[in-house]
Design a protein that fits this description.
This protein is of the alpha/beta class. The chain has 11 helices and 9 strands. Helices cover about 35% and strands about 15% of the residues. The relative contact order is 0.16.
Length: about 350
Amino acid sequence: MKQTSSKISVILISTLLVLNIFGLALIQVGKGTEELPDYEPMDWQTSQSGFQGIPTIEGAPAEGASASSVESFATTPPVGTKVYDWYLEAISAGTPTGTQPWMTLKAISGNVEVWLQDYLWFLPGDPRNNYDVVPAGGWQHGLNVTDAMCQYIADEFNNVIYPTDTKYFGAPMDRDGTNTIFQQLGWPSYYWDWIATDNPQRVIIKVLNIRDTGYYNPAYPYYTVGFYSSTYTRTYYKRNMIHIDCWRWWQRLGPQGKQWFSDAPSLRVTAARAFLMESTVAHEFQHNIHRDWNPNDPSFMNEGCSDYAQMLCGYPNTVWGHVNYYLYTPDNSLTEWEIKAT
């Protein structure tokens, strides 16, 4: 009897560990249910994230190359401006949905501007396109990122994340968005006429549905929650910039229990992963800073500083998930990371 009880305990513990790792949950999809992962956010440089890589421009000028004519200094456009973005074009070209390159400026707050991809859907037929539909509500689905959410993350960045990260790690280089790669190549002005700013410390937060393994496979348990590309920041756009995924912000933005939609059932729309999006922004912005100050540091040092940035900004709980991942797989190296282009 004691042996049977022991076996049951082992099975129970193993099951809990597996459930904790993969986060399986019954997700409401339209009128029915479907057993899919409650997707775990992953850093883009880990193999688990399934990140598809960073598109590049063939025949791009070398960093620091001069344009034949540089446009005059400009200010950030007003909230509500809709623009054509090369990166969104590059990641959506050739997909069944067609090219979807448009994004809209949703919020500005001091040292940050938040741009939201207009087309956030998954591929046609993906069940996630119907998540959390509330027929009588003022919102549509789990991909919904509202203006209020964008303004919130902009204010949080300007008031908490930017001053904290720059205090401890230093300020990134000034970048005003002039002399972009698009200008150097002589492309039409709509590729770059929205990028320049009169505040060279103003950071672009680009919110989009990041293309990774999970984008194409709804059963995949992980997703890329954000990334920073030094190629885009230093060479292409000439702006300090980070990219953040759009998935279920209502569940991942703000303190525990935050209600973003008062006209929807509270059980389904309150924040359950407190401050996940804020901590991701703090994490990725540290990468932006680190690349300017310590470009030759190994990845584990850079990642460690980004995790520490989350704690410094007051978002401590998300860091312990990384500790748990290591405890689950102690044979996974702390210092040897998969190498990806940045």
